[in-house]
Specification:
The chain contains five helices and ten strands. A hairpin with a 7-residue loop joins strand 6 (127-132) and strand 7 (140-144). It has helices at 2-19, 38-47, 61-71, 92-101, 148-157; strands spanning 25-26, 53-56, 74-75, 83-86, 115-119, 127-132, 140-144, 166-170, 175-179, 184-187. Strands 1-9-8-5-4-2-3 form a seven-stranded mixed β-sheet, sandwiched between helices. The protein has a three-stranded antiparallel β-sheet with strand order 7-6-10. This is Phosphonate C-P lyase system protein PhnH.
Length: 190
């Protein structure tokens, strides 16, 4: 019964993050898999089950098998995966390839798109970004440890609403933030 309550609390946190883009939440750490943050496993245990598929950016078999055992999720190629997990330390090229491969749904079934779970690496420099869109009163200014290429690629994947990808950003500190496809991200230059 404790696992049920654990995932319910995580689901509430994720729901709040998606409803209010730019709002950071904290996730609990009860399970771990080598190569992933414990909070990423919390997200996987909350969102994955036998009805959905996933893949890691570098198609790491050890991580895939461990996540499959914990969640029952199906392992599929990046182009078919409902969830794409990008572990910290993933090379920029692999990260961009994974996002490029992410499915965006179609006009009949826009919900058949991918959710990309990105572990933010403390080594990546942070940028100041403005978030705008539903759930944000005017503009939300946040610090993100993501590269400009990721922002541009995400924007191109989300250009034809309701098609697009949703992103969940997880920091090593345990903070989580969501970027729904309806949120526009613009780097603030000084």
């Amino acid at each position: 019964m404790e696992t049920v309550h654990f995932t319910q609390r995580a689901f509430r946190t994720l729901l709040n993050c998606f409803a209010r883009p730019g709002t950071a939440g904290e996730l609990e750490r009860d399970y771990s898999v080598e190569g992933l943050y414990a909070e990423t496993i919390t997200v996987c245990m909350t969102l994955l089950d036998g009805e959905v598929s996933f893949q890691t950016a570098a198609e790491c078999q050890e991580i895939n098998q461990a996540v499959r055992v914990l969640t029952g999720g199906q392992i599929k190629p990046l182009e078919q995966a409902d969830f794409i997990i990008i572990p910290h330390g993933t090379k920029k090229e692999q990260l961009l390839e994974a996002i490029e491969a992410a499915k965006v749904g179609d006009l009949i079934d826009p919900q058949k798109s991918a959710t990309v779970i990105i572990e933010l690496d403390e080594m990546t420099p942070t940028m100041t970004a403005q978030l705008m869109g539903p759930g944000i009163e005017t503009v939300e200014v946040v610090e993100l440890a993501i590269c400009e290429e990721l922002i541009a690629l995400r924007a191109s994947k989300n250009k034809e609403f309701p098609l697009g990808i949703d992103c969940i950003l997880i920091e090593q500190s345990g903070r989580v933030m969501a970027l729904p496809r309806t949120t526009s991200v613009k780097e603030v230059t000084n």
